[in-house]
Amino acid sequence: NAGVTQTPKFQVLKTGQSMTLQCAQDMNHEYMSWYRQDPGMGLRLIHYSVGAGITDQGEVPNGYNVSRSTTEDFPLRLLSAAPSQTSVYFCASSYARNEQFFGPGTRLTVL
Amino acid sequence: GESVGLHLPTLSVQEGDNSIINCAYSNSASDYFIWYKQESGKGPQFIIDIRSNMDKRQGQRVTVLLNKTVKHLSLQIAATQPGDSAVYFCAEINTGGFKTIFGAGTRLFVKA
Fold first, then answer.
1. Residue B65: exposed, middle, or buried by beta-carbon count in 10 A (0-12, 13-18, 19+)?
2. Among A4, A97, A102, whose Cβ lies nearest the Cβ of B98?
3. How many C-beta atoms lie closer than 10 Å to residue B81's C-beta?
4. Could you state, in chain order, the average pLDDT of each consecutive group of 10 residues for chain B (112 residues)?
């Protein structure tokens, strides 16, 4: 099993550009979520999904969109990148509410 | 609002000693409390969890204690090893929900 995979590992954007961060898992987990982690801080929940076709907002959803068309994939879209979105983004999946498996992260810089 | 915080931002211990990492929480309605470990450049890794109807749970070299009276959570690591050096996060999940709220983290340094 590859577990949770994220692409790209690094990305630099200019203000106003859009892009999609990819996340995939091969563990057949129903729950998936996206977090951002700013330097020296904990993780903040952006969006999450409890199954294909079902998504909901987390703590900091503004400026991000998600969709869940399959169990395996949960992409995160930045609509119009801003410097405040410079962060490390983690995707996670789980079969239950408590134990999440995290991907290696995507480091995003917005200039 | 809801928050999960930590008492100490950094902790330095000697190899072989026991480590205790503390966490305060404010949401009495949370039903799961979880500890994650994050090594440099990696995603967080689940260590252990405890449900709100328990006050102690033990794993391999780790013990989590939950004191609901004072809303306090702690992670004890026995015989701390250099490989335990990392940032440790506590997190809570609201009852019946899915939103996981993370604390800011404590960095553990293990001196050889």
1. middle
2. A97
3. 13
4. 53 96 88 94 95 95 95 96 96 87 91 92
